[in-house]
Specification:
Oligomer: single chain
Strand content: 15-25%
CATH topology of the largest domain: Rossmann fold
Strand order of the largest sheet: 7-8-6-11-13-14-15
Number of strands: 17
Shape: globular
CATH superfamily of the largest domain: Peptidase S8/S53 domain
Radius of gyration: 22 Å
Order of helices and strands: EHEEHEEHHEEHEEEHEEHEEEEEHHH
Distance between the termini: 50 Å
Number of domains: 2
Helix content: 25-40%
Number of helices: 10
CATH architecture of the largest domain: 3-Layer(aba) Sandwich
Low-confidence stretches: 1-25, 49-62, 140-145
Length: about 425
């Protein structure tokens, strides 16, 4: 499993609060100056500028929530007072703050700068701009088909989860999933009509579909089309995926991708504003106060978050109480909430290709599909009730966090039938 590693290329894309033109530098190199960057937030009183013509397309601007003059002035004052260079900024509606990334343009230690900033009474949060990575490991190549998809016989993970039987009860219809990841190759034939929209928070728009390996793989695990005589079967083949591109691929022909505090904050806030009930984050990284605040805001609204377990303790997002952390059921992992098979699992590659994938990124995507099946059967299920339900229906593996999806759906149906009988319907 590839776990978070600090890398020198920091990046983010945000529309400046007072400048409408987007940044144009490539995301993977925009901040590669040898300096450090800090994220600072200020209280931002509700402010809505005069209505203006709407826009459409890949860029997501977060509606008309704007920046109060006091927050704008504070941002400039901080740059001057603490000798920082303001790089990019963005008002976060979900938290009621204005968020700014500053560069430390000299050799001052970041710890000293943060210590000074945290003492400023006008600052609500100051932290490093951190990085996060996807969690997949190098591929390795390896039942009786229940589908006409030609590669279904290689999907041993579906057999372990009893997905064929589960699909007799639910296929995820009516459920939308937010995928916070790299971009996705929406033209892949096994994702036909499964991608409901895409929003980008990185600047590398010249990138080809080949640079969307990780996001495409995760989308395929969740919702690849079933019985289309093409490729594989997704766990929730009737679910729809909304893509929030916050990560960028680190090299050609690799699943390794990185994102940072700012790109993830934009994606999370956009997904929350879109009121998507289920959010997949097949990533991991250090504990992060800003991202934690956004996730906790979503949890309070009943949003269900699925995250990948990392080897390091206290890794985001699974360090947040309420996030469903998913491990590989082929390995022991004491801190996991649940587990799914995640070794040599067949999924999609960009440009109409397929390959095997391993790691807890895979496990998190699979569990996202499972939760979509359950929500399709009962959209009132909560994160806690889903975890309780799945833990009460263990799968055949020796890992105690493994699950039997068909048994879980059977329980949902039985509970629904009981409620209807009690109500006399």
């Amino acid at each position: 499993m590839r776990v978070l590693a600090r890398v020198s290329a920091l990046a983010a894309l945000v529309l400046s609060a007072w400048i409408s033109a987007p940044a144009t530098a490539d995301t993977a190199t925009q901040f590669d100056t040898g300096h450090h960057f800090v994220v600072v937030t200020f209280a931002n009183d509700p402010y809505r500028p005069a209505s203006r013509a709407g826009t459409s397309g890949r860029r997501y601007t977060g509606g008309t929530y704007g920046v109060a003059q006091s927050a704008h002035n504070n941002a400039q004052r901080i740059a001057s007072t603490y000798s920082l260079k303001q790089v990019i900024s963005w008002p976060i509606k979900a938290l009621g703050v204005h968020c700014v990334v500053y560069e430390i343009p000299d050799a001052r230690p970041m710890a000293d700068v943060l210590a000074a900033l945290t003492k400023d009474p006008k600052i609500t949060l100051a932290q490093p701009l951190q990085q996060f990575h996807t969690l997949t490991s190098a591929p390795a190549r390896g039942t009786k088909p229940a589908y006409n998809d030609p590669l279904y016989g290689l999907q041993t993970n579906l057999v372990s989860l009893d997905i064929a039987a589960a699909h007799e009860r639910s296929q995820g219809a009516g459920v939308k999933v937010a995928l916070i990841d790299t971009g996705v190759d929406s033209r892949h034939p096994d994702l036909r009509d499964r991608i409901s929209g895409s929003h980008s928070f990185v600047t590398a728009h010249s990138a080809t579909a080949g640079s969307y390996r990780h996001g495409t793989a995760m989308a395929g695990l969740i919702a690849a089309v079933a019985n289309n005589k093409v490729g594989i079967v997704g766990i929730a083949p009737l679910a729809r995926i909304e893509v929030f591109e916050a990560c960028w691929q680190l090299g050609p022909n690799t699943d390794e991708a990185a994102c940072n505090t700012f790109t993830l904050a934009q994606a999370l806030a956009a997904a929350l504003e879109a009121r998507i009930p289920l959010i997949n984050m097949s990533i991991a990284g250090p504990a992060d106060p800003l991202l934690a605040a956004l996730v906790q805001s979503g949890l309070k609204r009943g949003v269900i978050f699925i995250g990948s377990m990392a080897d390091e303790p206290d890794s985001f997002p699974t360090n947040i109480n309420g996030v469903i952390g998913v491990a590989n059921s082929d390995r022991e992992h004491g801190g996991a909430t649940l587990a799914a098979p995640a070794t040599h699992v067949l999924t999609l590659r960009p440009d109409n290709e397929y390959d095997f994938e391993s790691g807890t990124s895979v496990a998190a995507a699979e569990m996202t599909g499972v939760v979509a099946l359950l929500l399709s059967a009962n959209n009132r299920l909560t994160s806690d009730s889903i975890v309780s339900l799945l833990k009460s229906t263990p799968g055949p593996t020796t890992q105690p966090a493994s699950i039997d999806v068909d048994a879980a759906l059977a329980k949902v149906e039985a509970e629904r039938a009981g409620r209807l009988a009690r109500s006399g319907r």
